[in-house]
Amino acid sequence: DTEVTQTPKHLVMGMTNKKSLKCEQHMGHRAMYWYKQKAKKPPELMFVYSYEKLSINESVPSRFSPECPNSSLLNLHLHALQPEDSALYLCASSPRGQGASYNSPLHFGNGTRLTVT
Amino acid sequence: DAKTTQPTSMDCAEGRAANLPCNHSTISGNEYVYWYRQIHSQGPQYIIHGLKNNETNEMASLIITEDRKSSTLILPHATLRDTAVYYCIVRVGSSSGSARQLTFGSGTQLTVLP
Following DSSP, what letter does each residue of chain B receive, concatenated? Predict the structure, then answer.
C-alpha cells in the first residue's frame, strides 16, 4: 500500500472518449507530479504542480490536461488520445515550502494502467 | 541534473548481499544521490539518499566514494521480494523546499535467485 492513491487502477478507452485519472494524498504535501511510463522504460515527467499551480509542463500534448483542484487532489483529463498513449501513468507528491526538507523524496502511487483502443 | 550509468541487469542469491553500482562522474557539489526501486506493476519506491557521507536505513546502505563520482547501494540480505528495477538518480538539492522532479535513467534489473 502507498500513501498516494490513484484511481482507477486500470482504464480502457477509445480514441474519441473523455476520461480522467485521479490522484489523492493526505500527507500535507504541496508538490504533485504526473509521470508517464511505457513498457520496459523508465518513468518520464509530464507535469509538476506546486501549491496548486502548474510549474512544469514537459511539452506534453494538449490532449492531456492536468488539474489540481486542491492541495490533496491531482487530476489528469484525457481526450482524443492515441494508441501510443497507452502506458502506466504515475502520480507522486513531495513536501514543499519553508520548513520542508528540500531533499525530501517523492512518494509515488501505484499508477493507472491506461489502454487506448 | 547529472547523468548516471548503471548496469542493465544483475543477479543475486537469496540471503546474500546485493551490491548495485552507479556511476555519476559529472556530479556537482550540490547534487544528491537518490535510489529508488520499482517492483513489477508498482510505482517507484524511495530507498535512500545521500550527499557525501555513507548512509544507512532499515532498507539499505548507500556508500558514496570520496570523490563522489560513484556510489553503491547495498541490500544486506536480499530476499525474493527485492527483485525489482533499481534506479540511481542524481538530483540538485533545492532551496526553500521547492518542487524538484526526479529524472529517471534506465536502472538496473536486480533478480534475486532462490
Answer: ----B--SEEEEETTS-EEEEEE-TT--TTEEEEEEEE-TTS--EEEEEESSS-EE-SS-EEEE-TTSSEEEEEETT--GGG-EEEEEEEEEPPGGG----------EEEEEE-
